[in-house]
Amino acid sequence: MPEQKVVAPEFMFTEAAREEQFITGSEAVREAVRRANVDMAVSYPITPQSESMHLVGDIYAEGYVKDYYRGENEFAVMCSVAGAAMGGVRVFTATGGPGTMRALEMFPTWVGARLPIVCAFFTRGINSPLTIQPDTIEMAHLLDTGMIMLHAEDAQDLYDMILKAFIIAEQTEVHIPVGVFADGFFVTHTRDKVRVAPADIKLPPYKPYSAPVPVMDMENVPFRQMRDPFVMKSNYVSYAAHASWQQEVLAAAERARPFIRQYLGGLVEVENEQADILVLAGGTAVCQSREAIAMAREEGIEAGLIKIKSLRPFPGEELRALTAKAKAVIVPEFNRVGWLSRELRNVVQNPDRVVPGPRVFGGMTMPPDLILAEIRRYARE
Amino acid sequence: MTNNNKTRRITLTQFNGGMILTKYHVLAGPEGYLPPAAACQGIRLPEVGWALIEGRHVPEQEALSAIVDKLLSAKRPFFFPGPNLLWEWKDGVAEKASALRKLADTAGARVIPMPDYRPKYPMINPAIEINPNHPNLTIWHNKIDVCVFAGVHCHYANVALKIIRGGTDCYTIAICGEAGHEDANITLRNAGIPQIEALTAMVAERRRLC
Questions:
Q1: Range of the domain at B47
Q2: Which of A187, A209, A231 is the last residue of a domain?
Q3: Within the 163-192 window of chain A, which residues sit less than 8 Å (CB to CB) from chain B?
Q4: Which A residues, 318 through 357, put their C-beta within 8 Å of a C-beta on chain B?
Q5: How do B56-59 and B50-53 pair as beta strands?
Q6: What CATH number corresponds to the domain at position A11?
Q7: Distance, C-alpha B89 to centroid of its chain
C-alpha cells in the first residue's frame, strides 16, 4: 500500500489528475473506498449481490481500511455500522434487495441518531419468487426513512458519489446517512471507463467532535435514549420531543441541498430542457433515455432529458421550473410501482402531463424503443 | 396552546416562473401545536460572517447588536450553556466558558447549565435543570423571556428551539460555534471568544450609557 496523503475534498474531486481504468461498478466502489479514508467497513457479502464488499475486504487486507469484518446478517451489519458511527468513526457498507428489506429498521434509526454512514445499495428485486436481478423497487421503501438518497447512472457516478457522499454526510448541519444507489448488475457487473484520482491521496479524516450529537458512550444520548425511549413516557411532552426530533432530521436533509449542489453540480442534470417533451429518469434508465432521445432526434423529434441525481432531498423546485412548459414528461422506471412518477406528480403543476412509464421489472432490460414509442406518441399529439 | 396573532408568521407559497418563494418569519411563539422546522420552510443557514435574525440574513455585527438589545430589554434572561462549554474536552473551552459566564453576569442573566442530555428521573426539577426534550418546562417555571443557547450540540439545540418556539413566548438566541440554527430567533455561526467578548463589551457600554 502506498503512503496516502490527505488532501482537501475539492482537490480530490476537481483538481487531482485522474487515471482512466476499465473496471466494473463493484471495482469502482473499491476504488472510491480506497481513497475515502474509511475507518471501518462491515460486510454481509451476499446481498450486495456483487463482489463490492469482497473487494472492500481486499483493500482492508492491503491496509486502506482500518477495520473490517463480516456480520451475521444484514440487520447485524447495519447495527454494527451504527455502533461504529456512534463511536465516532467513518464507516461504509453496502447491501441490496432483500438485504435492504431485512435491515430496514436500522435506516431511520441511523437518521434519528444523526449518523453520517455511507451505504451503497445495489438494487434488485425483493418479492417472492426470489430474484437476484435488477429492479429499483426497494428505493420506494426507503424514500421516507430520512436518509439522503443519491442515484448513480453508471460506474463513474458510483465512484464519484460514494466519495462525495462522505463529505456531504459529515457536514455538521447535515450529519445524516447517505445512501448511494446503483442498479444492481447493470452497473455492478459491467465494465466501464472510470476516471479515478491517484491512489496515494485520500480524503481528510472524519471529525466526530463537530458532530451535532455527542460521540456515544453508554451514558450519553442517543444510546441512553434508546434505553429510556420517549415512548416509555405517555405524555404530551414526550410526543412533542419526538416530533421535534423527526422534524430536525427532515431539516438536516434540507440543509444538504447546498452541499449536493456544490459537490455534485446540482440535484439534477439536464439536456435540451427547452424541448416540449421531456424524459425524467434516474439510474440506468438515464442511459436508455439518452439513447431513445438520440433515436428520436434522428427522426426529427426533439426531446429533453432530466437526470435525477438526488431523490432525497427531492429537487421539487428544480423540477417545477424545468417542466413548467413541457407538454409531456415521460418517466421510464425499472420497477412496477412507478415511485418516481408519483414523486414527480406531487410537485409539478398540471400533473396530468406526467407519463408514468414505460416500466420494466424483475430484471428485464429496458429497450430504448419503449421510451422512443412514448416520445413519438406525444410528438404526434 | 393556540396560535398567537402577534407573531404575524407568514408562509407564502407562490409560483413565480416555476420557483417557489417562501417567506417564513422565525418569531417568538407560542407558534402552535407543532411548529415546523424553519429549514423546511425555506430558511437557510447564514454564510460565514453572517447571521440570522428571525430568518433574515444579516451581517454578524447587526445580529450582535440585536442580541444586546434583547438581553438588556429582557425581564428574566437566562443562559443555557451546553456540554461543549461545560466540559473541558479540548483546548480553549475553559476560556470560552469563562467568557460566556462574564457575558451572562454583565447582562444580569441567570445560568442554568445543561451538562448532558440524559433524561431526568423521576422528573425534571425545572427550577434548576433543563433538558432539550422539554425545555418549555424550565422556561414556563422560571418565566424566562429571553434565553441564550451556547455549547449545546446542534441537534439538541434545534430540537429544543422548536419546542420553545411552539409552546412559549421566550425569545431564543443561539451563540453557535458551528453553522448556526435556523430555529432560533437570532443565531450566530462560528461564534467564538471574539464574538462573546464583543457582546460583553457592547452590553457593558450600553449599561454605562444608561
A1: 5-209
A2: A209
A3: 171-173, 175
A4: 320-324, 349
A5: antiparallel
A6: 3.40.50.970
A7: 23
A143 close to B (CB below 8 A): no
* Structural domain total, chain B: 1
ipTM value of the model?
0.92
Model confidence at B89, in pLDDT bands (50, 70, 90)?
A: confident
Q: Pick the closest to residue A42 from A95, A114, A109, A104 (CA basis).
A: A95
Show the domain range for A144.
5-209
Nearest to A150 by CA among A121, A184, A112: A121
- Whether residues A195 and A307 share a domain: the answer is no
Look at A36-50, A154-168, B143-157 and tell me which has the smallest mean pLDDT: A36-50
N-terminal to C-terminal alpha carbon distance within chain B: 37
User: What does pTM read for this prediction?
Assistant: 0.94
Percent of chain A with pLDDT over 70: 95
* Average pLDDT value for residue range A152-176: 98
**Grid cell in block for residue A55:** 473487494
For residue A287, give the C-alpha cell.
Answer: 442511459
Question: Grid coordinates standing for A199?
Answer: 491512489
Chain B CB contacts of A322 under 8 Å are 18
Q: How far is B171 from chain A (nearest CA, A)?
A: 18
A263, A249, A254: which is closest to A167 by C-alpha? A263
Chain B residues interacting with chain A (CB cutoff of 8 angstroms): 15, 17-20, 34, 36-40, 44-45, 83, 89-90, 116-119, 132-134, 136-137, 153-156, 158-160, 162-163, 166-167, 178-180, 182-183
